[in-house]
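Troubleshooting entry. Yesterday's outputs looked truncated, so today I'm pasting the complete records for two proteins to confirm everything comes through intact. If either block looks cut off, that's the bug. Protein one:
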Amino acid sequence: MKIFRGEIHVIKERCKQCRLCINLCPTQVLQESEEVNEKGYHLPELIEEPEKGKICVACGFCQIICPEYAIWVEEKKEETPTEKK
C-alpha cells in the first residue's frame, strides 16, 4: 500500500493572507507562520502532528481554493513498513 503525503510550497510574493488554505484544509495541517512577505502578510506553514492524525495527505484542496495561485502541494510517496525491508 502506498501512502501519499504532501509537501507545501508557497509563492511568498503572491500570498495575501486570505487564510482560505488554513481555514478550509480538510486535515487542518496549515497555520499562519511568523514569516511575512514583502507586503507584510503572514504566510501559511505546514504543521504536521502524525501522533494526532494530522498529516498532509496531498489532497490539493489548498491549491484549488487559493485565489492568488500562491500555494501548491507536491506529492511525496512514503514507503510502508513492509517496503522498507
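Protein two, checking that the full record survives here as well:
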Amino acid sequence: MLSKIDVQKFNTLIEINTLINSNYQDVHALLTQILDSATRLCGGEASSMLLVDKENQELYFEVALGIKGPEVKQFTVKLGEGIAGWVAQHNKSIIVNDVSSDKRHLRAISNHINYPSKTMMAVPMRIKDECIGVIELLNKKDEKDFVQEDLEWLEIFANQAALAITNAKSIEKAWNEIQILQDQLKTDQGYHTMVAKSPIILEKIEIIDRVAKTDSSVLILGESGVGKEIFAEQIHLRSNRKNEPFVRVNCAALPEGLLESELFGHIKGAFTNAIANRQGRFEMADRGTIFLDEIGDLSLSLQSKLLRVIQEKTFEKVGSDSSITVNVRILAATNKDIDALVERGEFRSDLYYRLNVLPIYIPPLRQRPEDIPELASFFLKKFTRETKKQFEGFSNEAMKAMLSYSWPGNIRELENCVERACVIGKNKWINREDLFFKYPSGTAEQEGDRSLKTAINTFKIHFIRKVLEENNWNQTETARVLDIQRTYLSRLIKELDINPKE
C-alpha cells in the first residue's frame, strides 16, 4: 500500500504530465513547477535546473529556487566543473551527503552567494539518452541525508522536465515553419487587393494617401473583419518605405512570454529552447513598417516596452542588456473600444496618445452596401479559380439577400460565405440558398433553424460573452476560467462574432 507521501508524489506527477500533454505554452513556468514539486516532495531547501549549452560547453541556470535563487542565475558552469558539471559530463545521477569534502564541489558559487551546501543530489535530464541538463537539490531538511528513494523520484521529475523541453522544441519548430510560410505568402506579390466603391471608403483611401507620406504612428479602428490589415498594407505601399519590409504581428495570437520574444527577439540561453540568437519583428522591420494587429490585447508590461520603442527607437532582446536602435514606422489596429480600455486602466494612456496620432476608423460593411457587390464579385472570381468551377455570377435573389444582410463578421464573413457557396454550388449562378447566412439570434430566419449545430453555437455565444463580461473582457483571464488556450478563445470570439457592444 502506498504511503501518504507516495500518493502525493503520484498525484503531482499526474498533474504535471497533464500540463505537458495539454500543449502547455509557458514552458519556463512549467519547468519551474516541476522543479518546485521535486524540491518540496524530496525535502530539499534549494534547487536548480541547469541546461546544457553545447556550443560553449557549459551549463546555464534556467530555474533556481530558494532564498539565493536570483543570485545563482548569474553564473554558468563548465561541463565537468562542479557536481552538476560532472553529472552532465558523465550522464549519471549522484548523491553527495558530505559536500564540503567532495573534490568535485564548486565552492566559488557557494562562497559568492554565502550559501553553504551540505548535502546534494543531482540527476541528468535526458532526451534519447543524451544529457540536455541537470536538476540538483541542496540541503535535505531537518539535517537529514538524501537517500536512494529521493534520487529515484528526482530522476522521474527530471524525465518530466526533459519531456516538457522536447515538446517546447517541437512547438518552436512548428511555429518557425508556420512563420516562414506566412512570410513567404505575404511577399510583395502577396498583398491583398483593395476593393472599394462606396464613397465612405473612397474617402478613407484619400486620407490614407495623405497619411502615408508621414512617419507618424497610425491607429486603425474598426470591427473584426472590416479589413484593417488591408488598410495598413495600403499605408505602407503608398509610403516612402514601400521598398522596405512590411512586418505583421498578431498580438492576440501568442501568449505574453512568446510575444515579447516575437517582437524584440532573444539571445541564446534567454529561456528554454533558446538555442540561438533570434531577430525580433521590430529588428526585421528596420527602415520599414511594422503592423501590430489586435494591439488592445497587449499586456501592460509589453505596452511599456512598446512605448519606449516609439519614444526612443530602442529596445533590448529578451535576456540581453544591449540596446538595439531601429527606424520603424508603427501601424496598430484593434477591434476593441480602446477608449474604454484606457479608462479602465487596461491600456496605457501615454501609449494610446502615441499610437493615436493619426486615427483611422474603418466602418463596418453594413454601413457601405455599395462595396458588397464589388467584393462579392471579387471573391467569386477568386474561388472560381480555386474550386475549378465555372459560375456566371449571383442570382438576383442572392444579391438581394447579400445587400439586406447585416454582415456581423464584415468582409471576412462575406469572403467565407462566397467560398462556401462556390464549394457547394451546383448551378451556373450562385443562389440564395448556397450562401448559408448566419442570422443573429432572435431573427425570423433563425427561428426555423432548429439544428443541433445552431443550438450549440447559440449556447457558446451566450456563455462565452457572459464569462467575458464577468472578467471585464480580459481574454487571458476568461481563457483561464474556461480552461482553454487564449488563442483558441480569440478564434472563437472572431468566428462567433462576439463583441462587447452587443
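Both blocks look complete. Sanity check on protein two: DSSP finds 21 helices and 15 strands in the chain.
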